[in-house]
Amino acid sequence: MTASSATRTVSEIAETASELGALRDAAGSVLDRSWSVEAFRSMLDGPGPVWDTPLWDTIVAAGWPEVLVDESAGGGDGTLAQLCVLAECVGRAAAPVPLAATATAAWSENRPVDGVPLVLEATCALDGGRVSGSWSVVPFGMVATRLLVLAEDDGDVAFGVVDPTGPGARREPVTPLDHGPAAAVDLDGAPVEVLLRGDAARDRHRGALLRARLATTAEMVGIAATATASATEYATQREAFGRPIGAFQAVAHRLVDQRCDVEIGRALVTRAADAVDHGLPDAPALVSLAVFWALDRLRAVPEGAAQVFGGIGYTWEHEMHVHLRRSACAAAALGGRAEHRAPVVTWLRDRNTRRD
Questions:
Q1: What is the model's pLDDT at position 125?
Q2: Lowest-confidence range among 89-93, 215-219, 306-310?
Q3: What is the CATH number assigned to the segment(s) 117-197?
Q4: C-alpha span between 107 and 122 (Å, rounded)
């Protein structure tokens, strides 16, 4: 793909949308056969984290984590928009898998996934061939097999791989709201296999985080979509005063607003993914715009859906608290509103200046 989204014809855009729709249907079918919200909820009652190895093996066998890897390296040679569709399906199915994180890690190394590779966000210290740093919560950190880190020391910058089970590496389990296999990770002089140095290292790390954030936003689109769909179905069945509660304006307007939030979120994700794939200069701002929408609007959708269910929506037996938990954890991984508001404001100001 070489042409920017601004130069594509309407028919080309429609064809891409059709292809993404077909991918969404196919991926949804795979997850429907392999997982369910009930399975997630039942694991919350167990002693261990919410993690299902056979489910992850199914995802890996389908090639989803390798969608961004070049075909010549054994990957799917796909687009970020395709990864985001897959991530949205993961959100819809409440599948506890690190697709966004591992797919972007695979992109960083341009190699097929072997285990569970993760890219750590914060920069750590570099001392020769060793790195040091601490992360209080790393989602899926307890099942990670490779940690990709950016390390610096007096201008020397390296992007490389650390073995989380090797010398100088320690991880302790922590329990996030979604009960995933998260970990507190501490590296103290851990050996690092350097992949890139200098500006190339920074660019690779920045590109990985950009893609991971957008894919996580797409997962929030899926979470919001399934929460809204469940609430809408319930509103057509539950009656009050002899009428389905969906016939009351307060409920109907809430559901319509939530559906709009989902569709806008999906459109923002698709646009940002296209910009990243084509290397457009406004790609980081468009990603921040999609993330900000997720934090500002999508995060609240499962909460609104739970209110449609009334008291039963807040019980342990109901599925809605699963979506609430997953949405909260995904939002926490995206950072704060202020972090994403600033680049969006700058981008909009620059656009207006150019027009004047």
A1: 97
A2: 306-310
A3: 2.40.110.10
A4: 18
